[in-house]
Amino acid sequence: MTVFGGPRAAPTPGGCPCGSGAMYAECCGPLHDGNQAARTAEQLMRSRYSAFVVGDTAYLARTWHPRTRPAELDATDGPAWQGLAVIATADGREDDSVGEVEFRAAHDGGVLHERSRFIRRAGRWVYVDGEVI
Q1: pLDDT for 9
Q2: Could you report the per-residue pLDDT of 27-85, keeping only the tens digit for each?
Q3: Which helix (H) or strand (E) holds 55?
Q4: Are 126 and 101 within 8 A, CB to CB?
Q5: How many CB atoms lie within 10 A of CB 97?
Q6: Which residues contact residue 14 at a Cβ distance below 8 angstroms, ignoring those fewer than 6 apart?
Q7: In the chain, fewer beta carbons within 10 Å around the N or the C end?
Q8: What is the mean pLDDT of residues 86-99?
Q9: Percent of the chain with pLDDT over 70
């Protein structure tokens, strides 16, 4: 299976692609660079969305559970991501070991509505899988 991201692009000058309202350098940038780890499942999901936007396949690979991670990640083809809305979260807080995040991610071909599952592995949040809704 190949997972597609959007074309690699610079983060929006006015803020982080994840829609948090913070600047990329203070939000998802430090996670992508490996200088910080996500504290919650929602923060990991937002940072992974941003990684798809900027084409950071290395970050996507290292935050994907090895049991479910595809053999190949390709950020050169795929939809152009246009916005993220978090709908709901279940667990996934700093003290939890599992979590779920439901979101809608708009792209040039429509909207991806997914409920993603995350677990803590070796003290870090990782993406396990998602159910398209």
Answers
A1: 44
A2: 999 999 999 999 999 999 999 999 999 999 999 999 999 999 999 888 777 789 999 99
A3: none
A4: no
A5: 11
A6: none
A7: N
A8: 97
A9: 88
Residue 13 is predicted with a pLDDT of 60
Centre a 10 Å sphere on the Cβ of residue 129 and count the other Cβ atoms it contains: 13
Nearest residue to 36 via CA among 46, 26, 45:
26
Largest CA distance in the chain: 37
Would you state the pLDDT for residue 14?
59
Phi, psi of 108 (to 5 degrees): -65, -15
Cα-based angle 120, 4, 93 (whole degrees, multiple of 5): 20
Q: Which two tokens stand for residue 131?
A: 């159910």
* Tokens representing residue 32 in the block: 């992508």
Which residues have CB under 8 Å from 81's CB, separation 6+? Answer: 6, 17, 49, 52, 53, 105, 106, 107
Alpha-carbon span 118 to 100, nearest angstrom: 6
Cα–Cα distance, 37 to 101 (Å, whole number)? 17
